[in-house]
Amino acid sequence: MARWLADRSLTVLNGPLAHGIPTWVGFRDDREMSSIIDMFLTNASLLSPRLDIASDLSLGSDHRLLTLSFSFAQSSASESSSVTPDASLHPRRLWNLSRLGEPDPCQLYQDTFRSSSAPLLSQLKRLVQHPPSSRPPIDDLNASLNNIIYRSLDSSVGDRPPRPSHWKKYWTQQLQDAADYRNRCYRRWRRAFGIDKVYWWHQHQQANTSFRQAVLDAKRLSWQAFCKSLESDFTKAISKVKQLKRRHQSSASFSHPDGPSKAVEVMASHLASVFDGSLLPSTRPSPPPSPSSLGLPLGLHGSSPSGTSPSGPSSSSSYLFAPLTIHTYIGQLPTRKAPGTDHIKAEMLKPISTDLSHLLSWFFSLCCQWSYVPSLWRHAQVFPIFKKGDPSLPSNYRPISLTSVFRKLLELSLAPWLASVSPQLDLAQGGFRPRRSALDQALCLHELMQSYYRRSHRFPVVAFLDIKSAYDTVDRRVIWDALSRSGAGSSPCLPLLVHLFDDVSVSVLVSNHSSAPFSPVTGVLQGSVLSPHLYSVYINTLPSLLRQVAAPATHLVPSSGSADAGMVPVNSLLFADDVAVIGSAKSVKEMLKLCEDHSLSLGYRWNPLKCAVLNHPTSSSSSSGSTQLSLYGTSLPLVDKFVYLGMPFVKTGLSAASVLSLRSPGVLKLMSILNLIGVNRQGFSLLLCSRIYATFVRPKFEYGLAISKFTTAQVKEIERLQDRCLRMMVGGHATSSTSVIKHVTTLPSMHHRIDVLTTRFCLRARSLPRSCLLSLMVSSVPACRLTIHLQNNPLFLALPSPAPSSDTRLKTFFRQYRERQLTSLVTSTTQVLLRACRPALVVDPILYVPATRAERSLLVRWRLGWLPGKPEDCPCGRDRRSRRHFLECDLIPSFLWSDLPRCPPGSYPIDFALSSLPLGRSARCPPWWSSLLLMLWYIQRLCRPDRYYPIDSSPGASWYSRSARRSD
């Protein structure tokens, strides 16, 4: 070992700091043995090192607790001149934002902000209405606004230091006292001699057992309280489950052997090389004019606007920054998102949105006047998100920008103006555009492939192309030039937009360490509100360029959505940076050459290794040689199946058979994660589990079902996938029935869900504007899947005429349709357990009436048929356990049967009683409730005689007591 340490220049700190002190003490063959097997190794010089080995702590382990404290040695002058300084820590400021949900702290926060911001509001009004000769200190004004918010939060809710890593929710002072007593007994035993050593060892063992039991009890009570709190607030439950799910999902984070300081250095160096503009061509559009050459201030001269002088700034562009509009945008901000460098989150702005919207209205107008925004709004902290591949390579991470929430509000305010002055986007572009979706684009690709086949009697070659670092290599000059040509050049908002994206700084944030900032030459920030639209403007010339070499069999659509317009071929589809080109092998080869030329002219690059070609003709060597498809001299991979926008495509188009195999692994993995965090029989209630499943798991395999054409066997496979998830939720065996689970929780079958999703998609397609590509395809394709197959599902055909116009009415129709199906099912089914349930489409009251966990478990297990379970011999010795036998079993008191409500002939008393429970969470407790629970307790004891079930002295007391309180 000494040679190994010497070869690696490592030093063992145990020797000089804790010489001879064992780190492991155990007993073998009635002898105490010790050794030094836990060691600290380092290759750095440390200042004031100290190593403590705790020998008097009872840890339940033979290993002792080691604690090393030290300071880093300062680098020498020569080293500091050649080595980049360590990245600085960037801690977040935290406040008790949960207290903003309380009336008094929230009111204090609003009052404090209102009084503190009044001088700033007056100053902003004066600067906008009477502009000075030079640019005002906008950065200082932003700092004043931030400090006002900070002080208001400090005085109302207070700041919150980060929780230590060892913090446990269930830990109490009683547990701490028990732990201290255990350690005290352990120390006395270590120091005792003779017979006293036996006594203190016995005391330590008892203390250790009591402490462990107390910890288990505290964990159980804390978990039950946690589950109960989630059941009372579904919104809180979804938010918490999402947080727990994210914590359990394995996602690599960028790291370096030399620590987070070196990690941010390496990642920043990589991103700087991506943003450095090395791919830019020599001939580029001219840069936009600088704001100083435009004669500042811009475009906001004038008196107060008509009718808005008290509340908004004056100008022709005041509609962009109207207080009411900004107030709406603040309400739309997502919560629980990471803040920018100013530590401001949406949760802080929403309680003060009324006052803040007026202040920001003047602030944004001031920024527009001077084409300048605060530097904090132009700084992005880039957090690397792992994509796939080797996690040690910085190129396998997506740089997501964390920017100020005020920047997001400014971008939201500029979005309507940007959409109005942008050049018309090509109809082939479907990404991040209103009234368009990824499923629309996938269905369009399927129809284009089918139309090509009908025209040429062969399926087209489809090349799926991937742009390397698409958002990060954008030449922003191309965007500004396109906007200037389309009419935005005279607007005062364009210089502001140019400044907002050109004058940015970027730093990398990893493990609370931040790199030195750098200025990117190219790119638009990933995570910015306007970046998707700006990228669409950047890439907008590609589809029209590819149309020059469209194959003769390419499908044609009206260029502007009207029948009188000229017809244009659709030989390419774009969804942001996801590109697909369609045509013959020859035309696709020509299109790839145009794509290559287009990338060289604009300054981006395709990634040939991540591209793919579907349906390439490889039957004859001569044809394959003449139509070899490549980019930059690199051949593109040939595939038989490709996933485009989340949908699997094969030779003929969309592949319904591949949808389930594509979704199943992810669905089962997610269900396993949720199962670990409480979506199981011992965790959350069945009702909450079903809602969590419907929120997180079911949408994962519902994606794409609306546009897929399934066979009956494939629908059954999808149904079996849902059944498997439900069995994981309740702990059922591999073949247990799930009909009752779906009935009592009102979860629909997947057959019904497919009909609902398809109907919604068809109704939405009817309302799309005629300029949408899907609308053009439906009107021009004679045998479109939307009209031939999707609109022929029974739910769509059952729609009234006219179809429901609102979502509420549509949901009512879906419910009525399902109720009719349920009535037919219950009356015709041979499933005894399903026929025994309440014949109505409502959540079974057994899932939400006041009851203890043990009582609700009895109710649910009876409904599911787990009681009585297998027909084995009853302890009474007269017959096997069965529903029929319990009616005459001597071990069940007969008076309990007479206490239950009288049931009609053919019904089982317990089933009828459960179906007679009143609906509604505020319903009063029936008089026979305790008898029903006691009856089920007796049945449980008969079914599991080998277990001990303590009897409740007052079964059903929780519902009785609540009813009594409400009657008082």
UniProtKB/TrEMBL annotation:
Region annotated Disordered, chain positions: 281-316
CDD domains recorded: RT_nLTR_like (cd01650)
Record organism: Rhizopus delemar (strain RA 99-880 / ATCC MYA-4621 / FGSC 9543 / NRRL 43880) (Mucormycosis agent)
Name assigned to this protein: Reverse transcriptase domain-containing protein
Domain Reverse transcriptase, first and last residues per copy: 366-636
Cross-referenced SUPFAM superfamilies: DNase I-like
One Pfam family here: RVT_1
Ranges of Low complexity composition bias in the record: 292-316
